[in-house]
Amino acid sequence: MRRRGLARRVTAAAAVATLGPEDRICLPLCCGLPLTLVEALCADASRLRGLEIVSGLQVVYPFLDPKLAGAFSFRTWQCAPAIRALLKTGQVKYIPMRQGDAVRVFGPGGPWPVRAALIQVAPPDAEGRCSLGVSIGHSLPLALGADIVIAEVNQRMPRVLGPSYLHLEEIDYLVESDRDLVVFPAGEAPGPRESAIGELAAALIPDGATVQIGLGAIPEAILQRLAAKRGLRLFAMGMDRMVDLHRAGALDTAHGPAITVTEILGGPAVFDFVHANPLVEGRPLPEVINPLAAGARPHFCSVLSALEIDLCGQVNAETVRGEQFSAVGGSFDFLQGALLSEGGVSIIALPSSTPGDKISRIAATLPPGSAVTTPRHCVQYVITEYGVADLWGKSLGERARALAGIAHPGFRAELQARAAELG
Question: Residue 248 half-sphere exposure, CB side, CA atoms within 13 Å?
Fold first, then answer.
């Protein structure tokens, strides 16, 4: 447990002045990015040159702006389009790790411990507790182990209930602000392929399930179909669509919090929805992106995306032609959680081919240099717009034939011939 702080109210510049160029600091994700503190950090870049920032996915990366001439380096477990070009320069240091390991890797005793945590919190409640609001994840536990905690207290940060807070006495410096949160942009609307996948996936998710799902056109299509379900609970990430699910009557509102989040990615609608809402509880990363935590929930259903899968069932969700494109994130933890859960369902969902039907996403073998994000022995259901392949308990030949059967018709005959060679 962290030592008790002073909770001194200071300017952003004065707070950042407590940091040095040799330090490593952590920042929250996406909508939780403390913009006032980051702006002060960038304004002091010449003095702080050499400082390393640790975090995951962001909507904006002001600390990597070319105008700062590489003053800061960024160590991360995510690989967004905005930072891919910096991987080869060394300014961005991508670690191929599970997001659920972030606290152990960057906490005390880990290989890259942070000295300071810069966070954004809601105003304190009557008992002096400051909710970390839309980004609890790694930020809360790393702050508890950091030497310095600097909190931007934003009047517009929603107060998410649950074990999602620091007490004022656990914070060293408070910087007041009153500004809009970073908004996670809406993704591409589902097309016919995604809608077909969404219908197939939703059919595998029963009423009363606990659902973990990501962002993108396929997850959006699945969430649209889930509006007709009843008694659902949502896990891990909050998003705009969960407001619609609540309005549609799809969520379980009779048995405590129906939504457990460690991060919330969206806009004003979801920010307003989660504020002091007893249906929503926030929890730190180890209590959410953790296969044991997920697996303890009956009928835990995980829906994951992928870039490609081979006929043996090996899943690549990270690389394209050997180049880093995405990341592991929480995928493996959730997949394992679904396999551990009583009545759990694990789904890998992907289009059958690349845009223009140029390349099959179901391959005979993964291309050289591809990452294996999910090993073949962990895969249960695979869905494309052409159907569902159940690989659980199947032999090499059986799973290859099942996968070939849901491939794009333009590649199916060749894949079926390769599948026949496997027995």
Answer: 17
Give the whole-angstrom CA distance, residue 4 versus residue 292.
31
| Strand runs labelled E in 90-222 | 92-94, 116-121, 129-131, 148-154, 165-167, 173-177, 210-213
What is the arithmetic mean of pLDDT over 108-120?
A: 98
For position 154, what pLDDT does the model report? 98
Pull the structure tokens for residue 279. 């249906």
Measure Cα distances from 334 to 168, 204, 205, 381, 382 in Å.
33, 16, 15, 14, 15
Same domain membership, residue 149 and residue 250: no
When divided into structural domains, the chain yields a total of 2
Domain that holds residue 75: 8-177
Residue 409 falls inside a structural domain: yes
Q: What are phi and psi of 292, to 5 degrees?
A: -70, -40
| DSSP category for residue 373 | S
Please tell me the pTM assigned to this model: 0.95
Determine, yes or no, domain membership for 183.
Answer: no
Q: How confident is the model at residue 4 (pLDDT cuts 50, 70, 90)?
A: low
